[in-house]
Amino acid sequence: MTTPSPGDELRAAVSARRDLGPEFEDALVESFLDKLGSEVDRRVDQRVAAAEVAAPATRDGRSDGMRLALAIVSLALGTIVTIAILATTKGALALIPVWAGIVLVNVVFTQSTRKP
Known about the structure:
By secondary structure, the chain is mainly alpha-helical. Helix content is 77%, strand content 0%. The two termini are 42 Å apart. 0% of the residues are buried.
C-alpha cells in the first residue's frame, strides 16, 4: 500500500473544500495537518533509525579521543617521572611502582570501556 504524498493530500483537501463548501474548511484543514504531521513523524523516525545504524554509540560514552588522551598523558607522565627518579636516586627500582600504577590505570580504563 502506497502512502499518498503531502501534495496529493493537499490537492484532495482543496478538492474536498470545493465540493463541501467553506463550512467544512476547518475540519479539512485539521485533517490535512494531522496527515502532514504523521508523515513528518514517519520521516523523522526513519532518519533517526538510519542515523543509529550508521553511527552506533561509543562504549560507555567514552570516545576514541579519551583513550588517545589517556595514552598521551600516561606516556608523558611516565617519561617525566622516570627522568626525575633517575636524576635524583641511584636505583631504578623506584620506577617499578610508578610504571605499574600507569599500566594499572590504563588497564582499568580499557576494561571499563569494553561491552559486556
